[in-house]
Specification:
Blueprint: E1 2-7, E2 10-15, H1 16-19, H2 33-38, H3 41-55, E3 70-75, H4 79-94, E4 98-99, E5 108-113, H5 118-128, H6 134-137, E6 142-147, H7 148-153, H8 155-160, E7 166-168, H9 176-186, E8 190-192, H10 214-222, E9 238-242, E10 244-245, H11 256-260, E11 264-265, H12 268-280, E12 285-289, H13 306-312, E13 321-325, H14 334-342, E14 349-351, H15 359-365, H16 371-384, E15 389-396, H17 403-416, E16 420-425, H18 443-467, E17 472-480, E18 487-492, E19 497-501, E20 510-518, E21 523-530
Parallel strand pairs: 3-4, 3-5, 5-6, 6-7, 7-8, 9-12, 12-13, 14-15, 15-16, 19-21
Antiparallel strand pairs: 1-2, 10-11, 17-18, 17-20, 18-19, 20-21
Helix pairs in contact: 13-14, 17-18
This protein binds iron/sulfur cluster (SF4).
Iron/sulfur cluster binds near residues 247, 250, 254, 256 and 291.
Length: about 525
């Protein structure tokens, strides 16, 4: 299927068949090539999911009046939560529920929650109040709270918010549709938060039945958890593939091991099969997900690790960009660096959480590396991978951090020259060692340090971006800019954000863009060429 695209007077030939987009992909998606170009993503999802259910003969779950029941998912938190929302959507649609664009109109509202910071909890609590009276207006209304906050607060949530029908923990996601059905039939609250040996997705979980190996099908049956469901990626160009869930590190500020459980790696052959299927199906960028990706495989037999996995994902037909998040600096072996440098699909970007630049604080955090080792790793990475973008996470005001210790963080930030950073003032997570540390830093001091850090990093980001001016770079177009519909936004392989004027919907296209203006947040440029 060919289509000409005109940009600034030039005409570009685009052959969708060759760009890797397919109708009726192995994932079970029926996104059509023309839909990708002419419709906003939300419309595509609504249109296509309805169509898919009709094709599957499900026709939606009708209430007694024949109206089809709908669902809406709110997503908070990290990439892993975004992925879990894709699973929740796939499960609801496989059970016959239609997606709904407006939460207020939906019959089933699912909050997929995060508890990594206190303000994440507060945001959810605020929104839950909006659904206090929804049952009075709609007798089919079901309110579900899933994810990390559900795992952490369990029954407390239903006591505090009686409008909640179901609390569903991180290991029980796969039961969402049957629990909703149970509530519709029996109308009582359900709290399902048990942990399973199999982890969040079950030992049998693999997206798309077409590629499930006989071995994996056997394993799924053995565990009674055969979830061969079509993928439901929210994006038409980027898909997430979990490689592991849970974490064995127990950093003293972090709630993740408590709510996600210990590390559980997925078998390498399953990950490879899923990446192959998504690449053939037209997803141009794959993000490997895990709480600590480079601890991958330590719980598997056969000596596989993250380096083995990256190497096994080399030369996959159709795979243009491979990313991963998040690696742990203490687990970043030379083999992983070599595997990154040796695989042309792996993007020249690494998100490397520093957390603190002071060795005493790093010890208190139980991070397992020193500031010197971190900077050595940064140097090694930059040497092995030219033009590498490095981003980070930093927490200020942890435990009893002194002004001098904070100054050490500023020094490491200066030395590391990150392209950008997620920066936070420490927020206590009840139940973790950090929450009961004596002589904790007062809130106003934490905030003051945060502003000073942001100021420093912003200046570094702008200067780093200026150094890249006048380059021409490959950008994966993500969609129109939220602030200016006359502009498109996209990301380079280094994860730099680029805006460029564009009046044609190029969502999911690779374009070549000149970097003409540099800012703290990224670049403004213009399209030189549509690659396809
Ligand atoms: S490595 Fe540390 S910060 Fe990351 S998820 Fe595990 S415990 Fe949390």
């Amino acid at each position: 299927m060919s289509k000409d695209i005109r940009i600034e007077g030039k005409s570009y030939k685009n052959d969708f068949a060759h760009s890797g987009f397919r109708i009726g992909s192995a994932s079970g998606s029926i996104w059509g090539a023309d839909n990708r170009i002419t419709k906003p993503l939300s419309e595509q999802r609504l249109h296509n999911n309805g169509e898919k259910n009709a094709i599957n003969g499900l026709g939606g779950v009708p209430d007694p009046s024949g109206k089809h029941l709908t669902y809406y998912v709110f997503t908070y938190g990290c990439q892993m939560n975004v992925y879990d929302s894709e699973i929740l959507s796939a499960l609801m649609e496989a059970a016959g529920y239609f997606p709904c664009a407006e939460p207020e109109q939906a019959d089933v509202v699912i909050f997929n929650t995060c508890c990594i910071r206190d303000n994440a909890d507060q945001k959810v609590y605020g929104r839950l109040g909006d659904f206090k009276k929804s049952r009075e207006k709609n007798e089919n209304f079901v309110l579900v709270v899933a994810g990390c906050l559900a795992q952490k607060d369990k029954e407390e949530l239903t006591q505090r918010f009686p409008q909640i029908d179901i609390v569903i923990g991180t290991h029980q996601v796969r039961h969402v549709a049957e629990l909703v059905q149970q509530v519709l039939e029996e109308r009582h609250q359900i709290v399902a938060v048990e942990r399973t040996e199999a982890g969040a997705y079950g030992d049998g979980y693999i997206r798309g039945s077409e590629v499930a190996s006989e071995a994996s099908k056997g394993a799924s049956k053995q565990h009674g958890n055969h979830l061969d469901l079509p993928a439901q990626p929210q994006s038409v160009f980027q898909a997430k593939v979990p490689i592991s869930v849970g974490c064995n590190q127990w950093c003293t500020y972090c709630i993740v091991p408590y709510v996600r459980g210990p590390l559980k790696s997925r078998p390498l052959s399953w990950i490879k099969a899923e990446v192959q299927r998504l690449a053939v199906g037209g997803w141009r960028e794959i993000m490997l997900l895990g709480q600590n990706v480079n601890d991958y495989g330590h719980d598997l037999e056969g000596g596989v690790d993250f380096a083995t996995l990256l190497t096994s994902l080399k030369d996959i037909p159709g795979l243009e960009r491979l990313r991963f998040t998040s690696p742990h600096p203490a687990f970043f072996t030379d083999r992983v660096i070599e595997a990154m440098a040796d695989n042309p699909s792996v993007c020249e970007h690494v998100h490397l959480p520093l957390q603190s630049g002071d060795n005493e604080i790093l010890k208190k955090m139980k991070r397992g590396y020193t500031a010197e080792e971190f900077l050595e790793l940064v140097a090694k990475l930059r040497q092995a991978i030219p033009n590498l973008g490095i981003t980070t996470d930093i927490i200020v005001g942890y435990a009893d951090e002194t002004e001098e210790q904070f100054a050490n963080t500023l020094s490491v930030v200066d030395a590391a020259q990150f392209d950008s950073a997620f920066m936070f003032a420490y927020s206590e997570r009840p139940g973790t060692p950090g929450a009961i540390w004596p002589n904790r830093v007062p809130e106003e001091v934490r905030m003051d340090r945060l502003y000073r850090l942001i100021e420093k990093q912003n200046a570094i980001s702008e200067s780093r971006h200026r150094q890249r001016l006048n380059q021409t770079v490959e950008v994966l177009a993500e969609g129109p800019s939220k602030k200016d519909p006359g502009r498109f936004t996209g990301r380079t392989r280094q994860n730099w954000l680029v805006h460029f004027p564009c009046n044609t919907d190029l969502t999911g296209y690779m374009v070549r863009v000149s970097l003409d203006e540099a800012y703290m947040w990224g670049f403004v440029g213009k399209i030189i060429e549509v690659i396809g």
